[in-house]
Structure formats: C-alpha cells, structure tokens
C-alpha cells in the first residue's frame, strides 16, 4: 500500500520563472494503492514485471506516475530537506555517507559468492569422485577399472582451480568485513579518508567475485557431462538465480570504472609526491612501484619446478601497479578520452582485485597456520598456489607485458598447475566437506554427501517423477487420454 | 511400444565353457510395452527421467532390463550379424562407415551453432542500439543526450566479436557441408582416406563452435544489464535449451582427444617422410612447418596500425602446426602418458579448429567478393579481422610461445581491436538484420526488429502478464483471497 519511491527532485529555479533545477534523486513515502480495494490510486500504474531468468522470490515490479501529487512531508529528510522558508535544498552530513552501506552490501556479496561457488564445487567434486568413465588409454591390463573422472586432468582443470577459488574468496571476504567495521569507526568520527579505498576495493571485488561464481557454476555443471544437464545436478536453479548477481548492485562492467578512477587518482598523487606518508596498502604499492620501475627485473614464479610464494604475490602486485600507471599515463598525461579507455580500465580493475585476492590469501596462510592442524596448512597453501598460478596462466601476456613475470616461468605454468592439481586431488572431497553444506540445501542427486548418486537418480526418475505415474495413450485418435483410467481423462482435464 | 535398443553383445567364448566374449555394442528392435495396456512388459522398467536444464521437447527416458529375452532376429544386421551355423560374428563393410553420419551430424551442429548465436547477437545489437545510459564522461555540453550503450567499448567488446563470430562459423559450416558431400562420394567408392581428416575437423569444430555459442548467448544477455535478466530478453529459453550442446554428440572436452590423436598421427607421418605427396591441407601445413621451423621469424599481424590479413592466417596456422609438433614430441618421442597430456591436447584441438575458422573465413572473402555489392565485402573483411584479432588477443601467450606472432604486434592488439569495432559499429544493426531472423522466432521484446523495446516491455508486463489481472489480498487473515472476487477465491482454489 505504501512504498518508498526514489525520484528526481525538481525545484523551481531561482533565476527564471517556470524552469526547474534538478537536485538529484530523493526518497519519498507514497501511498500507491487504496486501503480497502487494494487497487492502484488514480494516476498510478503498478504491477509485477512477469517472468525473469531466476530469482523468483523477488517480486520485481514496475510503476508509472501520471500527474500524481505527493506532499512535501512525504520526503525522507535525514540527509537532505527542502527549506520551508526559502524553498532551497539543505543537505546534512557528508554526501559520501551513502557509500557506507553500498560498500557493506558489496562486501557481503563476496561472502555470498564464495558460498554459492562452494555449493557448485561441492556437487562437482563429489560426483566426479564417484563417476567412472573409460579405462586409462595407456592401460595394458584388462582387469583395470574405468577411471574416476576426477582423475582426468581435463576434469581437474575445470573444478580444482574453482575449489581453490572458494578459499581465495573466503579470506578476502573476511578481510573486507574486518576492514569495513574498522573503517566504519573512523567514518563515524567524521573522517571519510578510508571510504574511497574501501569503496574502490569493494566495487572491484564485487565485479570479479560474482563473475567468477556465475561462470564457475556453469563450468562445474558442464564438467559433469550429461547428468550435469539433468535436474538431478541441483545446479540448474542455483545458476538461474545467481545470474542476477553480475548485474545487480552495480553492473560488473560499469562499476570497474569507479575502481580505475580511484587508482588513477592515487597514482597521480603518488607521482606528484612519491615520499608522502602512505595511507593504505595501495599507496605503499604505488610508491614501491615508482621507486623500482626503472630497474625492474621480471620475476620467476616457477623455477626448476619450485614455486615461490613471495614471487606470486609480487607479480600480481606489480602487474596491478603497472596497469595503474599505464591508465594514469593515458588519462592524466596523454588526456585520452575516458570512453576510449574503458576496456583498459576494466582490465585494470580486474588485475587490482586479483591482487587483493592473492595478497589476502597469502597473508591468511601465515595467520591461520598456528590454529590449523595436520596437513591443513599445506593443503591451503596448495589452494593458494593453484588459484594464483591458474589466474596467472589465464592472463599470461598481461604479466609479461608489464614485466611482472618472466616469459620462461610463464611457459612453465601448465606443468606446475598439473602437479598442483595432483597434490590437491586426494584432499578434494575433504575440502568440499569442510564447507559443510547440508544435503537439503544442495538439493542434488549428484552431490549427495553419502555418494549414493545412482540410487538417488533412479529414485528421482522412477519413483518420485509424477510423469511416470500416468500412462498416457499414444493413440491421439482415442478418447481415452490416460490408459486404464476409465474416466476419459476427466480428472486431468479438470486441472486445465 | 517398439524401441531400438543399443546393448553390449556377449557371445559364448570359443575357448572355455560358460564364459563370454564381448563383441561390442549392437542394435536390437525390442518390444517394451504391452500393445493394449501400454504398460511395460515383465522385466522392463522404463520412464521419463524428469526435469532437465532445458530441451524439454526431448523426452529423455531411462530403461532397465531384468532377464529380458530378445530373439536373434531382433538384431539389426546391416553391418554385423551372428552366423546361424557357427555362432561367430560376421562384419560387413568398413567399420569406419559409422563415422560418416557422426561427421554429418557434427557438421550440422556448426550451422546450428551459428544461427543460435546469431539470434542472441541480433537481440543484443538491436537493444543496445536503442538503449541509452549516461552522458559521455568527457561531455561538457549539458544538452548532450545520454549515449547509446552500443557506443561504449565495454559493450562493443562483448557483442561485436560475437557478431563477427557468427560469420566465421557460417563460412566454415558451409565449407564442412561441401567437404562432407565431396568426401562422401569418395567413401561410397570404398576409399576411406578423407574420413579421418573429416572426422577430426568436425570433432574439433563441434567442440569449439558449441562452446563459443553457449558462452556467447550468456555474454550477450549480460551485456544487456537488468533487462537482459528479464523474461523480455528472449535469451532465457534459448540458453537453457542450448546448454545441452556442449555435452551431446560427443562431450566438448572428450572429443578433442580424437582431434589431437589424428594430428599426432599426421605429424608423425610428416616427420617420417617430409616429402610425401600431401593428401589434404593439414599435410601441406605440416610439411611447410617442418621445412621452416629452424628459421621461423615471428610475424607482425599489426604493424604501425596496418593489419596484414595474410599474416593473420599464417600465425593461426603456424601456432596449430607448432602445437601439433609439441604434442607429437611429448607423446611419440618422449612417450609421456596420454592422460597427463590431456589438457595440452585439448588446447591443440582448439588451436587447430580456430585455424580452420580463420583460414576458411579468409578464403571466403575472395570467393564471395565478386557476388557482393556496396560496402559488404569491406564489412565482411572487418568481421574477419575482428574475429581473428580478438581470438589472437585472448590466447596471446600461445601465439608468442609458438613463435607464431611477434610480441610487439600482440601488444598492439587492444588498440587495433578498438578501431575495428568502431569501423564495424555503423554496420552492426544491418549485419544482424542480414540474418533475417523473424520476430516470432526471437520472441524478444529487446530484440524487436522495429526497435519498439519499451512499448513491448510495458505491454508484456502491464497488459499481458496474467499475474496483474488478479489483485491478491495482502491480509493473510482474511478469507477473501482475491480482492473484489466475491467468491473467496474459489475459482483459483479449483485449479490446485
């Protein structure tokens, strides 16, 4: 009956009768339906927009107003109000305060993304650890069983890097949560300094993490072959619902501009004053970059089969800094049009966000090591390396172009990734079990925690599928719609 | 009632009473339901498997046999039969003949893929040419309109390379069709020589093209923002249905092994006898590669802003040949385990198939030029360049590692791609119109050929959405379910 309506507020212009100044979007409480009949009031058209891809639990609507009068008292005036005396707009507080909750929501989206991805990965890992197909091509023993598909590198390369990604997202989500609450205190005291950095990081990560998860669900589904396409996978609904996320709360391609604008601003400041006291890790990184860019030597991430964790962090950070510098150079020095740079800026945001994921994951290895027992710290390190090297390999030319990583070590990545996956393989089922996602939430025959994949698939199809309770008559000329019903199908027709 | 059943045929082993030899899968005509009651016969469990992701028009079923007797006369014996006298298996004709129709179906899948992708691209191009959002960030004129989103490079980079891809797929689909019918004649004469090459090409292309289309639909949908998630996009159903394609008719990751095995065989032969008369373009390419690999100079695809079409074809072919040689080296010379090489072999298949798309597209430019008028040949050349350079950029390190393309020209790709997209932009709507996909097939408010996007969206939501015909009572304590119905909602309850 009542709704919060966001609308552009036009106020009479001071200089010129009949013209208006737009003072931006404001919020109003408006009655839209009649209290008794629940019909829309005069001048209001409102309704449900109809089917969407998924996310049916959200009843998105449309609303049009035609000469609809709203009293001034309906305007929510915590941060802005129109003066009764002068008719002017008075704003209270810092305008940036709205970014606080935006940042909070985007931070939560990271934690949500990691759990949704964990659901998809749980299903894929469990099923592929049960499913067998084909004997090893080099097998010479007729008695050899068919291989578990999880032992094929072509299945591993699709699922195991995503398994590692769930943990990368987890530690960054936790870090952002802590950072938000720490910054919140500073902001409450009126110091808006940390907000820009927080907003930039949360925007870049929202874009990257929701994309990784949206794409990852489908990658997991396809890795499961034909049964992945079946309703027993449990991934059909989760995919349809999740596909809203790359668009809502700031479109994934749009908001990366905010990240790039922030980084260009920071780089401009760093170039201007390379010895100012750094306010945050980005300042530190940019100062380090500017001090070293003239004598940079590209790093060997993998050297003679040995992986250097410190070099991994270094190349991700260096690449982000170098791409920031290129963006600064193009926009500030060469004054290129913003629109022409948009793809470059999107790439920058992604590189910067990947650097956050890698750095935070690496930090967490040290922070969590003492509280974890058994092989867990080593397994998490393998996850860290797999996520990092897989990402490095996917964007290899970006790392060599920026003189972050050495060409030779980039060529060694595919072999290193194969070895990491073989290391991780024996722990894969335990790692997804660690996410503790209950069977009722997975709602998946393939992802059952007890591994009874085929029993459940048969039960779903043969016993619980209502289609199989009715034997339809294939002879369309007959009046007996359901075979043996004796009622000419009246019971079914009544439902139509 | 009757079904063709594919089952493993076991025949009594000659050496040993009670044991059986498996002579492979054979086909049988089996009665599975009673002619009158349509109930499954004794020992047969059969039914519908239940919901799938999409493709609801296909009623996939399951079937189990328990001690079900089938007479020998039920076996389809065109190519293999069991002798009445000896009980032995007699095979007729060439066993490879089954690959003929497999190849034909995979060829058709390419043409289908290009049309499905064209549907998605048509919707995206038309909508993004209507939709406006935000003024140019560098605009200084208050009177400037908001930009059409199709003019943002971040929208172009997602849609225009896919528009170019539809034509790349088209010309290769046509070429495969011609090649199939030409090879068919040779095969009918008993010469199975061309079949291996045809089967390899059709497998690699099936994998590549269905992946490009499946991913491309979703890329187009996301490029349309919030309305892309809405039911008015027309891409929801097409996506759900098409997602079966990367799996059916040979899983996209599995069948690339067949391509790689063929290429390794060809390279082995070429190394053994580098001056044998070439039987097909692959032989020619491999001989050229082996003759030149010692003094290869990487090519400049883009040099001082000028694109060399001949170099584009060269680098795609060289990369495919070099990756073939690496696979030969790893498998034949170093005798590495097949399973360990699987990812490398998948990459090889993709590179080889991309080479087919690029080469065929380039050939078609010359073949079609004389029959096309106006700017069309130039526009198609832009499509050729955009598809090729976009693909090159996405796998840049693979081209530099194989000494196919020069590092410097790879770094020039993003700028060259931006320019190509600006060239193509004015022709984008006409190019999708050229696919002539009727509105009733698109079934999309966003993709209407007359551009009446918002009129149609409003009509769908406000006038045709049945949810809005009923005003539900938000007061759950009331017995009046539908406001103003006067029947306490009986009409609705009767449907349940």
Automatic annotation (TrEMBL), chains A, B:
Gene Ontology, cellular component aspect: peroxisome
One Gene Ontology term of the molecular function aspect: fatty acid binding
Signal peptide (UniProt feature, chain positions): none
Pathway: Lipid metabolism; peroxisomal fatty acid beta-oxidation
Subcellular location: Peroxisome
Alphabetical keyword list: FAD, Fatty acid metabolism, Flavoprotein, Lipid metabolism, Oxidoreductase, Peroxisome
Gene3D superfamilies per record: Butyryl-CoA Dehydrogenase, subunit A, domain 2 (2.40.110.10), Butyryl-CoA Dehydrogenase, subunit A, domain 3 (1.20.140.10)
Lineage of origin: Eukaryota, Fungi, Dikarya, Ascomycota, Pezizomycotina
Protein family: Belongs to the acyl-CoA oxidase family.
Species of provenance: Pleomassaria siparia CBS 279.74
PANTHER family associated with the record: ELECTRON TRANSPORT OXIDOREDUCTASE, PEROXISOMAL ACYL-COENZYME A OXIDASE 1
Name assigned to this protein: acyl-CoA oxidase
Gene Ontology biological-process entries: fatty acid beta-oxidation using acyl-CoA oxidase; lipid homeostasis
Domain Acyl-CoA oxidase C-terminal: 310-477
């Amino acid at each position: 009956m009542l709704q919060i309506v966001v609308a552009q507020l036009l106020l009479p212009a001071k200089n010129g009768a009949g013209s208006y100044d737009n003072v931006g979007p404001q919020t109003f409480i408006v009655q839209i339906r009649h209290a008794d009949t629940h019909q829309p009031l005069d001048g209001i058209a409102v309704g449900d927009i109809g089917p969407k891809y998924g996310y049916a639990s959200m009843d998105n609507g449309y609303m049009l107003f035609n000469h609809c009068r709203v009293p001034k008292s309906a305007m929510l005036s915590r941060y802005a109000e129109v003066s009764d005396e002068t008719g002017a707009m008075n704003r209270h507080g810092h305008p940036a305060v709205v970014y606080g909750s935006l940042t909070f929501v985007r931070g939560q989206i990271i934690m949500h993304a990691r759990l949704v991805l964990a659901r998809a990965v749980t299903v894929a890992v469990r099923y592929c650890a049960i499913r067998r197909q084909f004997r090893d091509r080099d097998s010479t023993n007729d008695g050899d069983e068919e291989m578990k598909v999880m032992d094929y590198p072509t299945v591993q390369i699709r699922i195991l890097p995503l398994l590692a990604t769930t943990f990368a997202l987890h530690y960054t989500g936790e870090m952002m949560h802590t950072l938000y609450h720490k910054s919140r205190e500073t902001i409450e005291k009126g110091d808006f300094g940390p907000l820009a950095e927080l907003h930039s990081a949360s925007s870049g990560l929202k874009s990257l993490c929701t994309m990784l998860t949206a794409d990852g669900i489908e990658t997991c589904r396809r890795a499961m072959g034909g049964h992945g396409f079946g309703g027993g996978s449990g991934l059909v609904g989760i995919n349809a619902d999740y596909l809203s996320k790359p668009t809502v709360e700031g479109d994934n391609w749009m908001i990366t501009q905010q990240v790039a604008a922030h980084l260009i601003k920071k780089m401009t400041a760093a170039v201007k004053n390379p010895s100012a006291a750094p306010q945050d890790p980005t300042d530190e990184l940019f100062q380090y970059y500017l001090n070293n860019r003239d004598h940079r030597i590209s790093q060997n991430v993998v050297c003679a089969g040995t992986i250097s964790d410190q070099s991994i962090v270094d190349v991700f950070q260096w690449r982000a800094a170098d791409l920031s510098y290129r963006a600064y150079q193009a926009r500030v020095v060469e004054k290129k049009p913003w629109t022409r740079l948009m793809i470059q800026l999107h790439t920058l945001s992604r590189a910067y966000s990947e650097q956050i994921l890698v750095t935070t994951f690496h930090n967490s290895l040290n922070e969590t090591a003492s509280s974890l027992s058994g092989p867990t710290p080593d397994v998490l390190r393998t996850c860290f390396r797999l996520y990092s090297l897989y990402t490095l390999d996917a964007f290899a030319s970006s790392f060599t172009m920026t003189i972050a990583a050495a060409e030779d070590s980039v060529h060694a990545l595919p072999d290193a990734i194969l070895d990491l996956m073989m290391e991780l393989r024996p722990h894969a089922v335990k790692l997804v079990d660690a996410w503790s996602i209950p069977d009722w939430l997975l709602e998946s025959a393939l992802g059952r925690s007890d591994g009874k994949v085929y029993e459940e698939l048969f039960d779903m199809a043969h016993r619980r599928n209502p289609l199989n309770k009715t034997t339809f008559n294939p002879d369309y000329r007959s009046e007996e719609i359901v075979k043996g019903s004796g009622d000419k199908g009246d019971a079914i027709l009544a439902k139509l």
